[in-house]
Amino acid sequence: MTTTAVLWGGFTLLVLVLLALDLGVLNRGAAVIPPRRAAMLTGLWVALAVAFGLGILFWRGSGPALEFFTGYLLEYSLSMDNIFVFVLLFSYFAVPAAYQRRVLFWGVLGALIMRAVMIVVGAALIERFSWVLYLFGAFLIVSGIRMARQREEEVHPEGNPLIGLVRRILPVTDEYAEDRFFVRRGGRLMATPLFIVLLTIESTDLVFAVDSIPAIFGVTTDAFIVYSSNVFAILGLRSLYFILADAVTRLYYLRLGLAAILVFVGLKMIAERWVHIPVAVSLLAIVVCLGLAGAASVVRNRRLAARGEAPPAIPGRLSEVTRTELRPDEAFGCGRSVRQDGAPAGDDARGGLATPREIEE
């Protein structure tokens, strides 16, 4: 057995152990993770990532270790944009807070598998066709510019072809059946709205991976470093969600910071042939972009508070959606779009999503 096979096999075993620890020990019996506990779990995942990076430092040297930490921070920061969309999707489908953790767990598991496939394919393409790096770089620059110009984050699950395909194959219940994805009614297997939500989350993460995977190839082409940094960033995504779910509107300039990071990495990939930018400089650039975006958001929030204003809340956010059974139009949103600032998108000011007060009534 080769060293590479042992390395990948051992890391895969480690990931399975961490997933079992997360589901069966750390969050056993917890339907909703309180913010304080979520903060502790997030700290634990970060500590595990740091420990793994130190292991790489001891085993492979400072170069690969620096690549791992840079890739981890890059993927972790880009995953925050996933959280924005997750909040909007849970609001759109009016998913009860008690069921969101299970959707996130299976969403994380699916993301690990999808990204592993994409990384293997991407690494093979780069090894065979070196010009692919320039293509990735140009794609990241375009993605970053588009992200910076897009001031509203909208979700349109009703237009997702995957959901349409599933609903033609499987009947879907009109209400949530606790936290189950499938139920039997009258001898027929039926999907629940929660399964539709899971499919939407998975397809959305696939779109995000198209941005994040090329980005990390701008840091390193070592497939193991690329995958391991992705894995540790994704494993901490669930607990990070429960911290940021109610605070996404306060991180107003984060998307601009992420856009700057994508453009920087894209330029680095294109210019690498003529100008070598050390990994340490890339790490510093990511930290500076995130720091400036966070500081600018804090200043904006303080100015709003001084004027007696507050960032608008997203309807149906984590702390508000608690009912376990919803009408069909509430469960599927009836085509309503929700923006990042919490307001309805376009001309559809009401749509089919009930407000928390209407849900209680």
Task: Kindly list the characteristics that best describe this protein.
two-stranded antiparallel ribbon; mainly alpha; single chain; 13 helices; 361 residues
The largest pleated sheet is described as: 2 strands, antiparallel
Order of helices and strands: HHHHHHEEHHHHHHH
Gross morphology is globular
Total number of domains:
1
- Could you estimate the helical fraction of the residues in percent? 55-70%
- Determine Rg (CA atoms, Å): 21 Å
Number of helices: 13
Provide the low-confidence segments as ranges.
Answer: 314-361
Q: Could you tell me how far the N terminus lies from the C terminus, measured between alpha carbons in angstroms? A: 63 Å
What is the chains' assembly state? single chain
| Secondary structural class | mainly alpha
DSSP strand content: under 5%
Tally the beta strands.
2
Average pLDDT value?
A: 76
Strand order of the largest sheet: 1-2
Please describe what this structure looks like.
This protein is mainly alpha-helical and 361 residues long. The protein has one domain. It has 13 helices and 2 strands. It has a two-stranded antiparallel ribbon with strand order 1-2. Strand 1 (182-185) and strand 2 (188-191) form a beta hairpin. Helix 3 runs parallel beside helix 11. The protein starts with a helix and ends with a helix.
